[in-house]
Amino acid sequence: MVRSAVADDRLLLYFNNVAKQNTYSVGLILGQSLSGKDYVIHFAKTPPVHSQDAKDGPSPGHRIKSINDIDEDWVADHARQATRMLPGGMHVLGVFFVGPDDVLNFVSPKIRGILSRVHKHLAAQKYLFGNPPNNEELVLYYCVTTQQFSCKSVELATGSVRPAEFKFLTSPMKWAQINCKYQMDQVYHINENESDWPLKKHMGIILDMMNKNLKSSVYLFDGELKDGDESVESIGKKKIPRSNKTSGQEDHLKPLQVCILQPCGDDQNSFQISESGNQIRIFGHVVSKLWLNPKISINVASEAVMQDIMRSLTTRLEMHWDSLTEEEHGEDMNSVHEPPRRVLISLPNTNIAISDYLFPGEGPHDAKISLEEMLDIKIHNDADVVDAEGQADLSEYYNESMESESEEVIAKKPTEDNRTLHFIGLGVALLVLITSLVIHFIQEI
């Protein structure tokens, strides 16, 4: 079976622009894989390796004279950065090369090394979900001399190389848009013997708990529980009335709204009492927008939503950790952390949007720089950067942090009035319980 990949013909112009640079180039193939077929949404040339030794800033990138000059680790890190910006369900499908020679008559050890390094680098970060479901990587080569494309599929486990078919389509590919807003307001208690752990370790445990929680959640599509084997296309298709349908106009898909119902907790028999030294409260929301092949099943679409949320949360936290000047350990004080927020930017000539993450105080200009370097996309208008989540108002939480110490003292020394109200409350609750039992008994008779 020959592996097949397709892309919009608008992407041909990208290769023409890269070829004009008269040098070897390497980059990432980004898209979605389904049933042995790859749907490419974007090509992102890997930026040149910069030297940070220069006093006046980074020096110009190192010029690649042959494929052997390519830095494998640099390409792998580029794949990690690009994956952070992709919506759920999208992956790094492989790598492309542009040069004057036809190098795909055989796949050299250098090309295999690049593919292997990218795969291992992405697999090392489990919640990025960077590698596609299959264990194969695409290699696409554009020969500047002949102006021809050649494509191979490399199976990393066995090292086998197979021919692959790559086509540029004149008609745009169809995508189903899925929207979700994931709300979070959860308190995680920390045992006394864990209070001095670094924040990064605590957040790693919390990410594991969140992932487990999302896996056991129920995903409603447009408010309904759908059969997992049903296709997104079957529920997302919106018929145009015959009176409004023009000649040659096809059915189109309306965006689907996904609601996540989370489990209330573990089985009651597993509850236990333990000493708590501190707590971490996770509060806020994640805005998710996905674009999936309409043939994808509801089960796969639900998993893509989960992956998008986990990928986004992991990216924000990693960026936040890297920005901290000092690691926070268990201190006798409260602190409020604000990880970067998500902004959305549409790819050129398509509705598919990718993400960037901005810290408080940053704006569209910062996203422009990141997009140009990581995805080779130029943004000319600030309005193209959609602030989907908005900046958080943390004044309430800063006030809570300042007042929490005095609240703890009050809680340890309740007044007589508080004790009286406490016993009155218990009495009222007991009376309500007895009354409900009597009514239930009468109804049974």
What does this protein look like?
- The chain is an alpha+beta fold and 445 residues long.
- The chain has nine helices and 16 strands.
- The longest helix has 29 residues, at 416-444.
- Residues 53-60, 245-251, 404-435 and 437-444 have low confidence and may be disordered.
The structure class reads alpha+beta
Q: Shape from CA axes? A: globular
Radius of gyration: 27 Å
Distance between the termini: 71 Å
Strand order of the largest sheet: 1-3-2-4-5-6-7
Name the beta content range.
Answer: 25-35%
The main β sheet shows up as:
7 strands, mixed, barrel
Helix content estimate: 25-40%
* Number of helical elements: 9
Strand element count? 16
SSE ordering: EHEEHEHEEEEHEHEEEEHEEHEHH
Low-confidence stretches: 53-60, 245-251, 404-435, 437-444
Give the rounded overall mean pLDDT: 81
Provide a quick synopsis of the model.
The chain is of the alpha+beta class. It has nine helices and 16 strands. The protein is 32% helix and 27% strand.
Task: Please outline the helices and strands.
Blueprint: E1 3-8, H1 12-19, E2 25-34, E3 37-45, H2 72-85, E4 91-99, H3 109-123, E5 136-143, E6 148-155, E7 161-169, E8 176-191, H4 199-215, E9 218-221, H5 232-236, E10 237-238, E11 252-253, E12 256-261, E13 276-292, H6 298-323, E14 341-346, E15 353-358, H7 364-374, E16 385-386, H8 395-412, H9 416-444
Parallel strand pairs: 1-3, 1-7, 4-5, 8-12
Antiparallel strand pairs: 2-3, 2-4, 5-6, 6-7, 8-13, 9-12, 10-11, 14-15, 14-16
Helix pairs in contact: 2-3, 4-6
